[in-house]
Hints:
Layout: E1 8-12, H1 17-28, E2 32-38, H2 53-56, E3 60-64
Parallel strand pairs: 1-2, 2-3
Amino acid sequence: MAYWDGKQVLVTGAGGFIGSHLVERLVRTGARVRAMVHYNSRNDWGQIEHLEPVVRDAVDVLAGDVR
């Protein structure tokens, strides 16, 4: 059993380059990932949209602002 198996993780800034790669790695190691992307009127998820469908479908994406 890997360390991240079944753990819940929130990644803020997940729409960026580093955040999206972190999301991908966490999903692939078994974590349950909730990704927060900065809200915009286009409903664009940034780099999350470019992940493989199997990874993207495993992520719960929230659009908002941490401020």
